[in-house]
Amino acid sequence: MWSLLPVLFSFAQATFITSDASNVINSSFEFIIVGGGTTGLAVANRLAANHTVLVVEQGQDLANNEIVNNPFMFAAGTPSPCRFSMNSAPQIGFGGTRRSLPLSYGSCLGGSSSINGMMGARPTFASMNAIEALGNPGWGWNDFLPYMQNSETFTPPNPWQMKEGANYISVVHGYNGPVGVSFSRPLVAPLLQRIAKKTIQTVFSGEVTLTPDMGDGFSGGHVSSFYYQIHFNKTLHSDRRSSSAWSYLYPQKQQRIGLTVLTEHMVNSVVTSTSASGKITATGILIEPTTGGQKFECVVSREVIISAGALHSPVILQRSGIGNATFLRDVGIEPVLDLPGVGANLQDHIGLYNTSFPLAPFANSTNITAGTDVLTGIVVAQPTAQDTLGLEDAHAIENLLRNTSGYAVSVSGVVNPESLVAQAAVIADAYQIDHPFIEIFFTPGSVSLQVAAHTILPLSRGRIYVNATDPSADPIADMQYLTSEVDMHVAVAAARRISRIAVTPPFSDLITKNALDEAGVPRVNATEEEVRKWVLDTYVSDIHFVGSNSMMPKELGGVVSPELLVYGTTNLRIADASILPLSVFPHPTLGLYGIAEKAADMILLTARESSGYN
Questions:
Q1: Nearest to residue 73, comparing CAs of 398, 431, 375, 432?
Q2: Dist CA 420 CA 422 (whole Å)
Q3: Which residues are catalytic?
Q4: What is the spatial distance between Cα 344 and Cα 432, in angstroms, rounded to a whole number?
Q5: pTM over 0.85
Q6: N or C: which end of the chain has fewer CB within 10 A?
Q7: Residues 285, 269: contact at Cβ < 8 Å?
Q8: Backbone phi and psi for residue 477, each to the nearest 5 degrees, phi listed first
Q9: Where in the numbering of this chain does the Glucose-methanol-choline oxidoreductase N-terminal domain appear (predicted)?
């Protein structure tokens, strides 16, 4: 399935990848996809089987870059040529201080699937049903699971891997899709994995239990070894990253004669026309070289699909005159369609990653440290609210969510109070049926062992909007991290559990006696103020951006319908993380492939219907 690139390009009828705009100027395509990242390439692959498709990607083609393709480069911290970042607007810190945070994203073919930690997480039954409850029929767990399965080729663990702790549930996986998903070969740091699982069960008093597979939709209250978006290359005899590019674009069997991919160019805006009834139709896109230069137009005959990610898709809409009309006029853009939700409802998990504990001298064994082949999050726990807080405090969090009107809407990035109330209510419902409250994961290392944590269903809402001074520059991203008291409670609870793990055997036996102090992590008996200060001083973006073109009813600030059509348009869709109204993917990529597969299915259905085929 995953062949070497030189073999791929021996095919005469291959997908056409170019950075030379002369190959597409004055051309027309049935479908144009803005963004050659995680979802964009997946949608393009499915559409181009029988249609002409243009993908425009602002980054490079890094097909043979070892830093991108070697999965062990991520945990090693090797700088990636695909990783770019922008700075957030100043965010809340302790005692009224403010600090900007780097917001990273992938800018190459494959997008963020080429820079991520590759952790094989899925949403849960409760979370997808929450998405459906926000006015999105057909997006519940039972409807969504087949699309995740369609994207996946899961490689079951072999007997040796299973003996060392790997496991799976066969019926929840797919076995014929483009994306390779598997455990590492050999299993990374198996002794640490056993110790981590045992420690988690002790810390949570047996309430967090072992499960064979965290991808079955019911991961809340469980702990397990983790699989990854990787595949084993028999020619190279090593694990390789299963990016969107190396899953849907480069392999031999994924070649599409109707697919053209233009790299190193950015989409300035979508070109539209307005009917007498006021409906907007996309007629093409305006393109320019990433390094600057002459703009040119490409024409579309069927649909434009925006897949540039939650940080960039809303800005493309805004530059196209689609968004909050008052704001657009203020920045000198003539409104085409007044849609206040564009750029609103932006969300991200916060990560607590300043949590590496010095290794005890005797523990320096590859069964614990993993040597040079380190992957992030080899064991993952997803305790529920009750597991984390106890029954009484879990009820208190639920009450906060169900009485969320106290959270100042003027601070948050929602369009109206009703939107936030509706979202908070479905989050509370999800917690009631054991949706994960936090995620804790263990990562080996040569000098320290990391026990990190992040939030999963934040209530804080931010906003992203075009830079008024220079619309082509980085947008303004005001994330509003931890502005909801609910989120602050969650983060404090996560921090306390990290501290508890560090002093609990058998994990504590692997690190130095003063590991908490050496790492600067609050002690187990730290005051509420001390833990809050540490959280506010150290939290970072988890780079899991969603929500900025939310799939919700328009009156709640929604931007797209359940069919992913932008409200008020006839043929403009969005298919990326920005459509998620809730941050339900603990690690987004496998869920995003599900979105891409579902989007392609809906787009092709429309194409068949418009052509008179059933």
A1: 375
A2: 5
A3: 544, 587
A4: 27
A5: yes
A6: C
A7: yes
A8: -110, 105
A9: 309-323
